[in-house]
Amino acid sequence: KKLTAERAVYQALEVAAKADKETSRGAEAFALKRGDRVVFTGETMRPRETWIAEIVRTGLTSGGVTKSTKVVVSADPDSLIGKARKARQYGVPVVDEVGFANLFEAY
Fold first, then answer.
1. 3-class secondary structure per residue, 66-90
2. What HEC string does the chain produce?
3. Which of 6-10, 33-37, 68-72, 77-81 has the lowest mean pLDDT?
4. Are 18 and 93 spatial neighbours (Cβ–Cβ below 8 Å)?
């Protein structure tokens, strides 16, 4: 059945609104906890060693991607190679450095 342009726009707006609500709920539910594993990949604005030292000092861990990794911080969160690809295979979220900085600040 062919959709009219108006109906297609309406449906797209409904889907976007629903996704926005789900994303907001997910963001509230997603938070770092002591002992969580954070993995860095790619070049970051802030030196990786500085990030790792700070997260370890505050009770988080770092290392390679495992099924228990909480989040992967990637210079290119849309990357489909290396650690980001492995994270996606495990269902681990991949975020950019700014997104992680906000998440870490809330921790």
1. CCCEEEEEECCCCCCCHHHHHHHHH
2. CCCCHHHHHHHHHHHHHHHHHHHHHHHHHCCCCCCCEEEEECCCCCCHHHHHHHHHHCCCEECCCCCCEEEEEECCCCCCCHHHHHHHHHCCCEECHHHHHHHHHHC
3. 6-10
4. no
pLDDT per position as a tens digit, 73-95: 998 888 888 999 999 999 999 99
Tell the burial category of 68 from Cβ atoms under 10 Å away from its Cβ (0-12, 13-18, 19+). exposed
Identify whether the C-beta of residue 39 lies closer than 8 Å to the C-beta of residue 73: yes
